[in-house]
Specification:
With 85 residues, this protein is an alpha+beta fold. The protein has a single domain, classed as YaeB-like fold, CATH 3.30.2310.20. The chain has helices at residues 10-17, 21-33; strands spanning 5-8, 44-45, 52-56, 59-66, 71-79. A hairpin with a 4-residue loop joins strand 4 (59-66) and strand 5.
Amino acid sequence: MVKYKILIKASAVKELNKIPKKDLQRITVKIQKLSDDPRPQGCEKLSGQERYRIRQGNYRIVYSIEDLVLTIYIIKIGHRKDIYK
């Protein structure tokens, strides 16, 4: 199976640094699994955008997929109460 390359925006890296360590490990594992399956069970396409989101506990990971170049762009990572603002 083909693996996708994962690129994380600088703003998303800053958001990652603010997440508590106990949640951070689970989130990084979830992001790494996207390289094997960019549309895992439970992911949802955001309406009106070419973006997807997956859940990890109280946190959401918003990303876009470029199938032609096999790349996933992590756009936002944050708590569910703040992520869509």
